[in-house]
Amino acid sequence: MEAYKNTALTPKERAADLLSRLSLEEKMGQVNCLFFLRKGEYEGLAQFPYGVGQVSSLQMRNQETLEDCVQIQRTLQEKIMVASPHRIPAIFHMEGLCGAYLQGAASFPSGIGRGSSWDPKLEEEVGKIVGEQERAAGITHTLAPVLDISRDSRMGRQGETYGEDPALAAAMGSAFVRGLQGGETDGRRSEGVAKHFLGFHAREAGIHGAHCEISPKLLREVYAKPFQAAITESGLRGIMPCYCSLNGEPVSASKAVMTELLREEMGFDGVTVSDYCAVNNIRTVQHVCESQAEAGLRAMEAGMDMELHFQQCFNEELMEWFQSGKADVEILNRAVLRVLEAKFRMGLFEHPFAMETEAVQEIFDRPSNEEVMMRSALESLVLLKNDGVLPLRKNVKKIAVIGDHGRTGRSFFGGYTHFSMAEGDLAARTSMAGLAGAEENDVEMETIPGTQIQKDAPKFEEVLKRQKPQVRSLYEELRRVLPEAEVTYSFGYPFAGDDESGHAEALKAASEADVVIVTLGGKHGTSSIASMGEGIDAVDINLPPCQERFLEKLAALGKPVVGVHFNGRPISSDWAERCCGAILEVWNPAEMGAKAIVAALLGEYNPGGKLPVSVAWTAGQIPVYYNHPYGSSTHQGESIGFPSYVDLPHAPRYCFGYGLSYTTFEYEKLVLSGNKMAPDGVLTVSADVRNTGDVAGDEVVQLYVRDRYASMTRPNQELAGFCRVRLEPGEKRTVEFRVKMSQLAFLDREMKWKVEEGDMDVLVGSSSEDIRLRESFRIMGDAYVEGKSRGFYAEVVVR
User: Fold this and answer.
1) pLDDT value for 442
2) What is the mean pLDDT of the chain?
3) Percent of the chain beyond pLDDT 90?
4) Distance, CA of 58 to CA of 41 (rounded, Å)
5) Cβ distance 133 to 364 under 8 Å?
6) Distance (Å, rounded) from C-alpha 550 to C-alpha 535?
7) Quick check: 582 and 390 in contact, CB under 8 A?
8) Residues 523-552: what's their mean pLDDT?
9) How much of the chain is helix, strand and coil, in % rounded to 5?
10) Which of 29, 58, 134, 371 has its CB surrounded by the most CB atoms within 10 Å?
């Protein structure tokens, strides 16, 4: 028996043996990817007569049945293995940020919504479900989590991220990876592909894929931290580099980023896959390299193992270079070895095929999946304002629901959900990087007045009814839950633009109601039908004119108003603050959205989410983030200029970590395990939290640290730990954080990770600005630590 067939050997040993047996043609197949358009249309296989390394499962988004998806996987896998002289199976990859692109699969809130939960344990459950459902269908590369740090709401992809803080993103992302990679289904194991490495959201002017200038120190301390945590703590096995150029070099062609930083410094030992068409972008977009083959060699030499989503630069010419010796074949061997090792780790050689449809359906239909979806939707909700109008009285007589979002369940699904991707495929123009220009529905596009955005059409609603027929709109759910009340609906205004033609009718409905619920925001989605998403950036982060003007008119009626905001960026509106007695940020809560929102409106659920981003007043204030360095933002310094802009404060509209509740919480008894800590020690910080109100609720207890004086300019404060805790009325719990001193390390002048002697403040509170308890300690001496093994966030125990 050949060694690679021996399951008693390690994946690395099996991969090395198989690599030694492969022809050059077989090796080139392993670093390439097949992209198919429709079931049964597999002509692209002819391009890979010796097999192929990956298959893109993106187009499964358009299959109407789970059976179709299963048959695609099984058919393609068999064809690929037959073509391969050594019957090497392909890795099937699929997005997984908000669930699988498979009919009947679970769907989850957007990344920013899940970041608002501040609940890593729940996020691990989300990862488990996504991994199990995709593995059942034969998909073992899940393109998630998104570990980008977002400090710019102009960027259309902010809604995919966990927010602005590296500790929060590290905890949430590591938990997702643990859930995703921790299980086995039918002999297969998943590997997460975290994205977008590195600094993707720090690009210039909020423009997707634009150039980034990030110092080596900031790159490591902030942007790399979530990736490092997922690698160190959860064994992350996949990385997708970003589209950007970073400090003058395309990331996809950067040995400094993909090898020296990622592998040598951070200890990553898995597979890197390109973003769609990113290798070709080296030449066509960044104008580096004169040919596709040269771009391919530059990328592979830098550390790129696989080119997605179809062959462009890992091509025949590059193979000829390896054949002739113009390019060192060991560069190819290194990439192929990593790919083969991943396939052995995944169990694909022994279990290459999707389960039978009935077995997959059984996994999809587990009641526990719905429970996690509901919890995730509920915990994503953030109450930003409440003058007492919420919760609504159960005996309310007449409710007016107004706004585009109130009439359709499509509002609940953000970018990178299965629904959004299927809906976006019907749009007149695609905005997805790597897909723009291909399969365009080149027709005249009727737009929403005052915008470039495509107007709505019945075909988009039909997608929802086919995919998720059980999903009700907010208006429908209110009518169902409140059968004794009169619930009316008026369109009022679209999700973008300046069309005020529906205002008069909606104002009349509002004047006759006891309570008005205005649905606000844009459309976080895909392609020309969205106002925010991949490739859909904006210079205006506030509500559209049609909504601001309506709120101004509505305020004159003096009615109780509740604002419910949908989008991938947070609400920022002067008139919403003036007009609305309550504002509920719901992001895009996915298929359980209607139930979750109505439960919160009626007080059946007490919203306890917290903002994972600081909210700018306008785009002119960007970037605004809580952990800014001393001497910046609200810590500008008394000796320089005014303490605010001439037209706005330096402080955000809503701060990081902010969120209200229907109850109140009291903090007391802050205790440190010591006031003097060795630089290699662990500090225990405990505090008591009591629910002092009349209803049960969740509080997110937040621990911040502040370095008073340091040898380098440091953040004015940093999140060190957090814990979401459920408390009944009158109940008290003790929350205990265990902070490794290595977590407080930073890069010194020699770019070494240093735990530095000095005084540190400990701040515990309900948000970054609402600090309830304070203490301090001193680190006694300096120490140097290894960056990849330092602490990333505090461990938590609740008693």
Assistant:
1) 54
2) 96
3) 95
4) 14
5) yes
6) 29
7) yes
8) 97
9) 35, 20, 45
10) 134
Closest C-alpha among 10, 8, 30 to residue 19? 30
Query: Encoding tokens for residue 696?
Result: 């049960």
- What is the DSSP-derived secondary structure letter of residue 592? G
Two structure tokens written together for 566: 């949908």
Which region holds residue 651: left if phi is over 0, alpha if psi is between -120 and 50, else beta? beta
Distance CA 517, CA 478 (A): 11
Query: Which string of DSSP letters, residue by residue, matches 401-439?
Result: EESGGGG-GGGG--TTSHHHHHHHTTSSS---TTTTTSS
Closest CA to 227 of 788, 796, 794, 629: 788
Q: Each residue of 435-466: pLDDT tens digit?
A: 654 445 556 789 999 999 999 999 999 999 99
What's the confidence (pLDDT) of residue 443?
60
**Looking at residue 88, what DSSP letter applies?**
P
**Percentage of the chain surpassing pLDDT 70?**
98
Cα separation, 212 vs 199, whole angstroms: 7
Helices (H) and strands (E) in the chain, counts: 22, 29
Q: Are 306 and 54 in contact (CB under 8 A)?
A: yes
Both structure tokens of 760: 């540190």
Dihedral sign, Cα of residue 42, residue 43, residue 44, residue 46: positive
Sorted by sequence, the CB contacts under 8 Å of residue 510 that are 6+ apart come out as 400, 402, 490, 516, 554, 557, 559
Fill in the amino acid letter for 82: V
Q: Determine the pLDDT at residue 637.
A: 75
Q: 668: which residues sit within 8 A by CB, 6+ positions away?
A: 687, 688, 690, 773
Which residues, 6+ apart, have CB-to-CB distance to 82 below 8 Å?
A: none
Length of the chain: 799
Contact between residue 537 and residue 156 where contact means Cβ atoms under 8 Å apart: yes
Quote the Cα angle for 111-594-470, to 5°. Answer: 100
The answer to whether 140 touches 188, Cβ cutoff 8 Å, is yes
Report pLDDT for 97. 98
How is 29-73 classified by DSSP, letter by letter? HHT-EEE--STT--GGGGG-TT--SEEE-GGGGG-SSHHHHHHHH
pLDDT by residue (tens digit) across 716-765?
A: 999 999 999 999 999 999 999 999 999 999 999 999 999 999 999 999 99
Order of strands, sheet of 746-747, starting from the edge strand that comes earlier in the sequence? 746-747, 753-755, 783-784
> Mind listing the pLDDT tens digit for each residue in 379-430?
999 999 999 999 999 889 999 999 999 999 999 999 999 999 999 999 998 8
Contact status, residue 152 vs residue 164, Cβ threshold 8 Å: no
What pLDDT score does 444 carry?
72
Cβ-based neighbours of 215, under 8 Å, separated by 6 or more: none
Report residue 588: phi and psi, to 5°. Answer: -135, 95
Inter-residue contact 550 to 354 (CB < 8 Å): no
Tokens at 573, concatenated: 């509106």
pLDDT in tens, 646-673: 999 999 999 999 999 999 999 999 999 9
Name beta bridge partners: 383: 584, 660
Would you list the DSSP string of 505-562? HHHHHHHT-SEEEEEEE--EESGGG-SEETTB--S--S--HHHHHHHHHHHTTT--EE
3-class SS of residue 206: helix
CA distance 745 to 714: 11
Partners of residue 246 on adjacent β-strands:
212, 249
